[in-house]
Write a structure and sequence with these properties.
Blueprint: H1 2-29, H2 56-73, E1 81-89, H3 98-111, E2 115-116, H4 120-135, E3 155-167, E4 171-184, E5 190-203
Parallel strand pairs: 1-2, 1-3
Antiparallel strand pairs: 3-4, 4-5
Helix pairs in contact: 2-3
Length: 204
Amino acid sequence: MKQHTIQRSALVLALAASSLALSACQNLSSPVVRFDRQVNYGDAKAVELVTNEFGSTDLQMIAEKMTGGLLETGIFQGRPTVTISTVKNKTSEYIDTTNVMSSIQTALVKSGKVRFVRSINEMQQGVDELQRQNQSGLYKQGTTAKVGQMTAAKYQMEGELTSIVKQSAATKDVYYKFTLKLFDVQEGTIEWQDEKEIRKTSKR
């Protein structure tokens, strides 16, 4: 009887040890993920006032001004083709200026009054696709895009972002100016130009 009790106790201990080992393995393979910070979604169009550095509100204001100005001129009659050239960042900040041009391009495309062709930075991807279709031998003859049939741009957009920063012991003032030009590619003339000025002041 005593031996039976000992065997039973040993079995219980073995089962308990197995359960602990299994639990440890599960904890190793399936770690519990905890979020220490609460995330809240906000309005993407709300005014951003975290710092006086270039932010989302500035980007939206510039895109709205440039798009509105371009569409009001009537220069896009007949849905001409446009390409985007360089956007120079002449500020002391790191600013992804392509975001500004992307917002302008999106609004203009949605207006239905202009067609965009590949920019210089996007051209290599188009060339690679044409070569893949025409040289790989994977596609039916007659269904591939023909080389030499791309539509050239009539106009070219060039942008520039500059800033002037002034600060004292108590105040920091930042002045931004974004300039956008539309060139006639063939004639090299500036057909349209506009700028957007933004001033941001903060207490230190």
